[in-house]
Specification:
This is Glucose-6-phosphate 1-dehydrogenase. The protein is of the alpha/beta class. It is built from 15 helices and 16 strands. Bound molecules: 6-O-phosphono-beta-D-glucopyranose (BG6).
């Protein structure tokens, strides 16, 4: 692929991804390849890697799905996906041509053993023709109910191991529906694949700004000394979305905000903020520390659930200038649904670093804007000597905000003297913006994670014990909610910042939600 070197040379972004020229050629088999995730995320991510990074020559994709496509129709679909969703546009015809040559389609039902035999043959053929040397990644991107069957069939066909090369499996979220099903899925996949072959994906861990939480904390000497209960008053983690269900009513009804966002993305963010420094930046050292945070979460069970959580559904309203229906009027949603589209939780981490520091998590759909951030609010100065500094008798607390998306960056709010002859103090911000500091586009989370899997690096994937520990925390809440009366499900107008109950929930502690 001679054109690559030109593209690479022109593209400073390559510096943003870890380059190992020794990346071995492999085949990625995508189960559920005609689905939305493949269309919007996986194919555009792979194409961008082909464009900007030396995806090994011979890298191939086998799309395993039920629709009656041919290689050619799948390639056309892939081109449409890339044209629509690629970070880099327009499509580079030369790169596309060599990328497309590696795209193959295999039509089969997931339960049909013959399909897996055909897959085996095709993979052997690709090893010969494209030099993929027996290296395989199986990507499960089907509805989760199909995972066990696919895993079992891969094992039965002997595709879980390969004497010639390595075999890895990526499992999309949701990983289970509750503690029992997550445990059972772990057991089933563990019967067929070894833990080091299993990559449970949480795309939030692939976001640059999320990885930067650890760099910020641990590559700088000045923050870690204040990163504890002596200096921090509380932490707020917000993942707000202006989107609604996006046609996923059926899935969302079974999931709700707590399973869709808290169990995975938000608890992951929390572990990165709260974990102890690992002894090394490698998969097990990092995950050992993250899992300790999850184990130290104060369990929420029984009545505590209702005082420490707020759940709500969006009602009709306006979002982004568009009138939208309420959750109960959405397609695929039961008019008596008890599925939450908003959740706020107060939780504590029972360890020496964090004892007594509340962590407030909130997420919701149809909020006024899309924004994800972690805000660390520090305690006030122990004594305010500037007596007349502030008419309200209050100087605003210092807040360090890690903005995950959009406007990625970090800011620190502190008090400054207003110029003039009297002593007035006003809050100002010290800002770092990724965009202006690095002047380069960030890779999509999936690009980073797919590449890490090809490298055999599972640091940014969740381990078996981690996923189960996150479910244990969430399960206590789910159990109590199940028997709680209908009145505990609040509503909020679409396009607002959630139910009034959530404001009262934090006000009663003398705090307030940030308005990002
Ligand atoms: C997914 C959820 O995991 O994350 C979606 O299933 C949600 O409901 C999405 O919209 C948010 O991801 P991002 O990267 O857009 O913040």
């Amino acid at each position: 692929m001679p054109q690559r070197s030109v593209v690479e040379a022109q593209n400073p972004f390559r510096e943003g991804l870890r380059i190992k020229e020794s990346l071995e050629p492999c085949v990625m088999v995508i189960f559920g390849a005609t689905g939305d995730l493949t269309h919007r995320k996986l194919l555009p991510a792979l194409y961008n890697l082909a464009l900007e990074h030396p995806l090994p020559a011979g890298f191939s994709v086998v799309a395993f799905a039920r629709r009656p496509y041919t290689d050619e129709t799948f390639r056309q679909q892939a081109l449409d996906s890339i044209n629509q969703y690629s970070r880099q546009k327009p499509v580079n015809p030369q790169v596309w041509e060599s990328f497309a040559a590696g795209l193959h389609y295999l039509q089969s039902d997931f339960h049909n053993p013959t399909g897996y035999e055909q897959l085996n043959e095709l993979l052997n053929k690709l090893d010969q023709e494209r030099g993929t040397s027996g290296n395989r990644i199986f990507y499960l991107s089907t509805p989760p109910s199909q995972y066990p069957e696919i895993i079992q069939n891969l094992g039965a066909a002997g595709l879980n191991r390969n004497r010639k090369g390595w075999t890895r499996i990526i499992i999309e979220k949701p990983f289970g529906h509750d503690v029992a099903s997550a445990h059972e899925l772990n057991r089933q996949v563990g019967k067929v694949f070894k833990e080091e072959q299993i990559y449970r994906i949480d795309h939030y861990l692939g976001k640059e700004t999320v990885q930067n939480i650890l760099v910020f904390r641990l590559a700088n000497g000045i923050f870690e000394p204040v990163w504890n209960r002596r200096y921090i008053d509380h932490v707020q983690i917000t993942v707000a979305e202006n989107l609604g269900l996006e046609g996923r009513g059926g899935y969302y009804e079974e999931s709700g905000a707590i399973r869709d966002m808290i169990q995975n993305h938000m608890l992951q963010l929390m572990t990165l903020v709260a974990m102890e420094p690992p002894i090394a930046f490698d998969a097990n050292s990092v995950r050992d520390e993250k899992v300790k945070v999850l184990h130290a979460l104060q369990p929420l069970t029984g009545r505590d659930v209702l005082t420490n959580t707020i759940r709500a559904q969006y009602g009709p309203g306006w979002v982004g200038g568009r009138e939208v229906p309420g959750y109960l009027q959405e397609n695929g949603v039961s008019p008596t649904s008890m599925t939450e589209t908003y959740v706020a939780i107060k939780t504590f981490i029972d360890n020496w670093r964090w004892a007594g520091v509340p962590f407030y998590l909130r997420t919701g759909k149809h909020l006024p804007k899309r924004v994800s951030e972690v805000a660390i609010q520090f305690k006030q100065a122990p004594l305010m000597i500037f007596k007349n500094s502030d008419a309200q008798g209050q100087v605003e607390p210092n807040v360090l905000t890690l903005r995950i998306q959009p406007d990625e960056g970090i800011s620190l709010k502190f008090g400054a003297k207003v110029p003039g002859t009297d002593m007035q103090i006003r809050a100002v911000n010290m800002d770092f913006f990724y965009g202006s500091s690095f002047v380069r586009e960030q890779p999509e989370a999936y690009e980073r994670l797919l590449l890490d899997c090809m490298h055999g690096d599972s640091t940014l994937f969740t381990r078996r014990d981690e996923v189960e520990a996150a479910w244990v925390f969430v399960q206590g809440i789910l159990d109590e909610w199940k028997s709680a009366p209908r009145e505990t499900m609040h509503t909020y107008e679409s396009g607002t910042w959630g139910p009034q109950a959530a404001d009262e929930f934090i006000w009663r502690e003398g705090r307030r939600w940030r308005r990002p």
